[in-house]
Design a protein that fits this description.
The complex is a heterodimer of chains A (170) and B (126).
Chain A lengths: L1 H26 L15 H11 L2 H18 L4 H24 L4 H24 L7 H26 L1 H5 L2
Helix pairs in contact in A: 1-2, 1-3, 2-3, 2-6, 3-4, 4-5, 5-6
Chain B lengths: L2 H29 L5 E6 L2 E7 L4 E7 L3 E8 L2 E7 L5 H4 L9 E4 L4 E6 L12
Antiparallel strand pairs in B: 1-2, 1-7, 3-4, 4-5, 6-7
The chains are: A mainly alpha (170), B alpha+beta (126).
Chain lengths: 170, 126
Amino acid sequence: MRKKTRKVALLGVLTSVALVLSYLEVMLPPISTAVPGIKMGLPNIIIIFVLYKFGLKEAVTVSLIRVFIVALIFGGNIMTLSYSVAGAVLSLALMTIFKKLNLFSIVGVSIIGGISHNLGQILVAIFLFDTIQIGYYMIVLSITGTIAGVVIGIISSVLVKKLEKFVKNF
Amino acid sequence: MSNKRKIKNDIILAVIVIAIAATGLLLLNIFKTEGAVAIVKIDGKETASYPLSVNTEVVIETGDSGKNTLVIEDGKAFVKNATCPDKICEGHSKISYVGETIVCLPHKVVIEIVVYNSDNELDVVI
């Protein structure tokens, strides 16, 4: 029972770290004004960490709580929320599948996560706007998603290694 | 699978994705053509269209009191002002090629460049 409480507490701390990273990302100047939606995806560091150290159930929980709190804090509506949820769900689903396939290291899984996060949002936009041309953005976004995925993946794998012993106690 | 093999796969994945995307960008650049008309879609429905040959400034009003100011200048379309909080469409570069879009997510507004007006009205075919 005590173990479970400690786990819940740690996941709560990790969720708040993910929230701080989301906030940091909003504060930073946009990487490109020409193509909207290019982001580093800093909160994904935490999501990948939780996925590898705890599991899918925990990662889904942290990810969705983050998305909803971000919408509350930064004034989202149903529209913006649906983009965030689509990106978060699709990237977690594909990251889980590719983690199970055991083909890639954390960096490869993170690349998949970065690209699929963009893909989820673009698909929702195409569906909502009924404009297939929005899909053109995916070409640029898959390049930036890959680069972001590599950076986030390297940070995550360092984190997973360094915190190996620490998490074992939970 | 060994770690070395996995890292090799990571690199292959990154290279393949970037190669495909770069090819796509190249093809888009080769085959891009200047458009003639900017159409405005709100919530997926086309509500207005403006020829790129005429300099105009219009305020697009959406149902929930959202406003986007569309400007057409020197054959290019851009959004000068938006009442949404994220202002992403304001920062978007000017568009003039067929298929290019400016999207305002909060107001569900899409501005898209097409060859002709979809109604084929002769007066706007240039």
